[in-house]
Amino acid sequence: MEKSTIQKKRFRGFLKSLIMITLVSLVLIFSFSIYTVYRVVAPPDIPTLQERDNRPVFAAVEPEPAWEYIYITNEAEEYIENDEHNWDYNLTAPERFTDDDRRDNFFTFLIVGLNEGQNANTVMVASYDANSREANLISIPRDSLMNVNRIGRKLSSSYIAGSGGGRGRAGGIDAIQRDVRSVIGFVPDFYIIIDYAAFHTIIDTVGGVEIYVPFHKRYTDKFQDLDIDIPPGLQHMDGETALHFARFRRANSGFQGITDYQRIENQQEVINAVGRRLLRPQSLLQIPTFVGIFNDYVYTNLTMGNMLWFARELNRVRGTDALSSHTTPMLGTSGAPMWYEILNARGVVDLVNETVNPFYRDIELRDVNIVTQ
Hints:
Layout: H1 3-11, H2 14-29, H3 34-38, H4 49-53, E1 69-71, E2 77-79, H5 82-85, E3 106-114, E4 120-129, E5 134-139, H6 158-163, H7 168-184, E6 190-195, H8 196-205, E7 209-213, E8 217-221, E9 226-230, E10 233-237, H9 239-247, H10 260-278, H11 287-297, E11 298-300, H12 304-317, E12 323-327, E13 330-333, E14 341-343, H13 345-354
Helix pairs in contact: 2-10, 2-11, 2-12, 8-9, 8-11, 9-10
């Protein structure tokens, strides 16, 4: 069986479970007021490009205007002059695009998981085509190198860099939207920002999750106040242990570590496990608790009616082969001491056009700002 087929099957249920955390669980949370909400269930209106380009921009996190060159394949490089690129972080899509280029009933989402320090440990871009009822999701590794002039050039630092200096949540969301745009060429329509504390609290509320651990995961980091010690075998995990499982990558001397891709798979496994617990009938009794968790830890520009509409659409997709997940193609890592993940610009652009691009026009290499050194 081809590797791509195996990966597609492995990840087939991931997008459904992820949205189950953020959307389907909301159906449970607010089911007691379903009659009132039902009257406002509707697909979201997508703002025009002009409306979106007039959003506030936080100059304190301004990136460099352009790059020197981008890597096209493993064998060749293509040079692009800075004055031909005209990179503009104020735009949400390439300047040549218009609203007439937009696909009908095609929605895109930025999904971010924040850790305790407000670093973006999980960054994903999802799309849903309501005409074909197909959904796609792209995971962007947290350690991806961004072409910015701020301290902390990894994608994981985007949110915390933008929220500093009193800019708060709006600044954090703006910064990570702009960094994601530099990777995929456009800003997704909607954002769902989930504080990891929400997962911690939800997992404890549903009584923990069961996850199989293939080998002993051991890692200590005094700087992060992190002490991961998870023995092998089938484990019943509370919220703290499950998040340790999701965060684990590096290991203490004498123990086995994993790659960033494997960590993404572990995060997906935790999400699936939580989704299964949320679907139990007894979870309905915990609606008031879930309401508080959502209000405290989930930030989104989707309305309740929008979320219920997407939940209903998700039910129509369920059981089909219309869900697929991907990870951005990489060239490799920079190695010690920074361990940047280096994106493959050509591979990323091709993947975006095959999956999450909401426009009839293709995203091109000139529309991304991916640095390779």
